[in-house]
Here is the input.
Amino acid sequence: MTPLRINLEANDIPTHWYNIVADMPNAPLPPLGRDGKPVTPDAMSAIFPGPILEQEMSAQRWIPIPQEVRQIYAQWRPSPLCRALRLEQSLGTPAKIFYKYEGVSPAGSHKPNSAVPQAYYNKLAGTKRLTTETGAGQWGSSIAYAGQMFGLPVRVYMVKVSYQQKPFRRSMMQTWGAEVFASPTDRTQAGRTALAADPESPGSLGLAISEAVEEAAADPGVCYTLGSVLNHVLLHQTVIGLEAKKQLEKVGLYPDVIIGPCGGGSSFGGIAFPFLSDKIAGDKRAEKLRCVAVEPTSCPTLTKGAYAYDFGDVSGYTPIMKMYTLGHDFMPPGIHAGGLRYHGDSPLVSQLVHEKLLEALAVPQVATFAAGVDFARAEGIIPAPESCHAIRAVIDEALRCKATGEPKTILFNLTGHGHFDMGSFDRYLSGQLEDYEYPVEAIRASLKHLPQVG
Amino acid sequence: MTPLRINLEANDIPTHWYNIVADMPNAPLPPLGRDGKPVTPDAMSAIFPGPILEQEMSAQRWIPIPQEVRQIYAQWRPSPLCRALRLEQSLGTPAKIFYKYEGVSPAGSHKPNSAVPQAYYNKLAGTKRLTTETGAGQWGSSIAYAGQMFGLPVRVYMVKVSYQQKPFRRSMMQTWGAEVFASPTDRTQAGRTALAADPESPGSLGLAISEAVEEAAADPGVCYTLGSVLNHVLLHQTVIGLEAKKQLEKVGLYPDVIIGPCGGGSSFGGIAFPFLSDKIAGDKRAEKLRCVAVEPTSCPTLTKGAYAYDFGDVSGYTPIMKMYTLGHDFMPPGIHAGGLRYHGDSPLVSQLVHEKLLEALAVPQVATFAAGVDFARAEGIIPAPESCHAIRAVIDEALRCKATGEPKTILFNLTGHGHFDMGSFDRYLSGQLEDYEYPVEAIRASLKHLPQVG
Here is the structure.
């Protein structure tokens, strides 16, 4: 019988996270404060606990994963690496397609890989409560779960329109004991200001961030958590790539191409960095390795954004970071159904794309969902819309292999399942989805608002 | 590190299903036709293919699992056996609690264990299309998935009120390529009759069954599929218990108590029978083994029903089967949120309960969801409402162990995840659920309509 899943045992859960900062050809550019100088850990200590800030700034190659975190990881890790044999057969490709399936986590995505250590380090540092923002709820539900695992109360500011339209992710967070507020609330100054301006405000991710940060900054016992973009989040996600490497080794393979969806960049860094390090180190196997970040044409950060210093949030509260950005006041169009809506991208991923060690690709929405449905019908798993972006690129790559006859090994990141996104599949299946290419002029306009540096 | 998951490899997927019929102290009573005589395979061949009918009637102990089925099973099987260590700790019980987690299947429950072989045998027998009915959609989505795996078109008659209120299970079926109709339809005589009587009819499971059976009976190329109750469905589900046995052996344990939710009985038979056979065979390890089927107090088939011949469907189209039943015109109350709504139960499970080889227990709704939330908060997995019934009984058993100090090994069937049932959790969390004990007088009344035998 062809083995379709390559499993590892609990003891194979990585003992260390891999920090690409140690191996980057050029040191990453630091985030800057309002004074144009690199921000100090002190400046961020009001909202993040010490161990998280240490990891954020660290250049140490291997960072130990605490036993308490590995014990929680063991609930679903090592996640399976699966051979997409039926998809290969349906495409008639000589390529071997493998997917690392992160949808097996309790929250259904890769997000708990970072939510669990973030909750752990906060507990360790004496944090009394966590805050965060969430849009559709994937990160919110992960931190609700992780907080519960360490007995840490969690408050989630959920964009009001999602709170009303996606009640099931909210129920999931509440089942795990989190308090969920429809943002804007009257609990914070930011929320009250927004409500004064528009009592019917549907909210926005930027506003929800402001509320969560404001609560954390105002109370020494409260810390803020973030689900992507920052170095420590990418660090935590490297368990994906480290396990995948071990699993491919079990069947004597090494990837020719690694493909992952990319929004804030954490799952992409997570799967790519442990392999990219081989390429940087001159490992023969990785000589021709390509790592491809896939994003939507309606939010084309890496492919059409500027590589520049910009704020991490819409309101300009955060330090500025050097990254690919569409401008911090960029708003993805309403017709976009597939996640990956962040205006910027992880500074680490951005710099490595800029230095041509990583590639980026944008795919249109309708073809993305079509790929997701093809995958579901071949492999049985209904992928998250985010993951569908990678699948589109994987199928295209496999079809190129069919044309050239190359038996490439393709590894991709199936970051989550689509159980809470069936509404988007419904819109696709009933022909209601459209493609949208974000206009270059609009990007040029929003890039005019980039902050001045130095 | 305490191993929380006991995994098996693809080669450990069982090679044979276990048929309890071979080992029952008394041969099972046959289903009877309208003439009061045992039904022949011929009488059912209009709606079921030959290999399925053979399995339905078989007394052979071990029935080989075709390689093609094992290959599809390998997508998610062997399913993990997990130690509920955090739940044990939160209860302070000396009991060891293990759960077999069937929510890892593509459709999120144990149902594909039977949907896959049913689709396979239909394909083999030359069936051109499958029909079935579905309420909330758990079975419908499983057969949609399984049909897709073998290139077999599937038509699902979905109870109209569920079709309208639970669109996401419908989208899931459509994503897997199935046609889904809101029942009653104007496609069948049964549907047209219902619509003539009430154009706004919300539909019922009984009516949807009639439509699916009618389409299958009218067209030689079309066969009908059923997700529980019948012998062949229980047979297929024994992969659950066979794997669990091997997994417990890996850690040197044998269960003292096996607990599972029970509606039509297929998942319960699936986990219990491979262990019950040891008890029947006089195996020392199984001497004190208890197998407990858990049902809702609002649909208390095994605990308050009569052990009698009754129809399998509401309309009285099917052969009559000897089983625990509340009467085929029983309707579970509208306030019931937790599944397991069938008026009868598997004839095999019923007979073994009647012969005191299996036990049954009914649990009230609010305490059932409370147990589900306790489990979610301890273990991270949000259980299907059906599975919550087992969890209620498990927690009660573990608390008894705490009182007596007995370090029992408890095995339970976590039959699925609750991702498509968050609406019910929402109702629980917001205090809208109530308990409901089905009144004895009402059961007495519906039992008056049992068919006359002989």
Chain A touches chain B through 47 residues (CB under 8 Å). Chain A has a mean pLDDT of 94.
